[in-house]
Amino acid sequence: MKALVSVLSMILMLILPLSAVHAEQRDEPVYVYINLWQNKLYLKTEAGEELASYKIAPGAVDTPSPVGSFQINQKALNWGGGFGSRWLGINVEWGTYGIHGTNRPEFIGRYVSHGCFRMKNRDIEKLYPQVKVGTKVIIDGPIMGHERLTYRILVPGSRGALVKLVQNRLKAAGYYHGRVNGQFDKQTERAVYRFQKSEGLPVTGQIGLEDMLYLGIVE
């Protein structure tokens, strides 16, 4: 009987597609890596193996995509319209961002979105089942959100990774005591005033080039 079971196991191994065998054996966690310089999204294992790569369309100059380390916090089917056939939400503190399909595939590869990451529907449909809620998402790109920009002026109401970086620097220097959440709110504005007054900078309540140079954000 044991011999029969062994023979059957060998036959199944021979007739099953190799991809099916590998899929069953693969238990490694995966993560999403997005490179904004390349406009590409990669699915990788924690060991560094690249499983897939896709072209994307990230945020435009005035509506940059977030940069940093996040997680998938939502999955949804058939959003339709400009969001295509699949949605993978990302837990960005300062707004609603996600990886999704599109009804304008000709724009893939260009900086055209409002900050989300557009993919061709056929590509997001391949990625969707491989990504779970809680999957790590690492977004790597220019500090200013776009490769053509050397700096941005931040004002009350501004949001994004650059605001979060400023909050971090102000907190480390003892000027800011609120949440580092990428939102230029009243508490952040008061911290900016304290920082500028204490360091002898023009007191504007905004973050401009001189302030970023002083904080070591740009050179």
TrEMBL record:
Hydrolase in keyword set: yes
Pfam families xrefs: PG_binding_1 (PF01471), YkuD (PF03734)
Annotated active site: 100, 116
Stored SUPFAM superfamilies: L,D-transpeptidase catalytic domain-like, PGBD-like
Keywords: Cell shape, Cell wall biogenesis/degradation, Glycosyltransferase, Hydrolase, Peptidoglycan synthesis, Signal, Transferase
GO cellular component: extracellular region
GO molecular function, one term: peptidoglycan L,D-transpeptidase activity
One GO term (biological process): regulation of cell shape
Domain of life from the UniProt record: Bacteria
Pathway named in the protein's UniProt entry: Cell wall biogenesis; peptidoglycan biosynthesis
Domain L,D-TPase catalytic: 30-140
Keyword RNA-binding: no
InterPro entries: LD-transpeptidase, LD_TPept_cat_dom, Peptidoglycan-bd-like, PGBD-like_sf, PGBDSf, Transpep_catalytic_dom
Signal peptide region: 1-23
Membership in a protein family: Belongs to the YkuD family.
Name of the featured protein: L,D-transpeptidase family protein
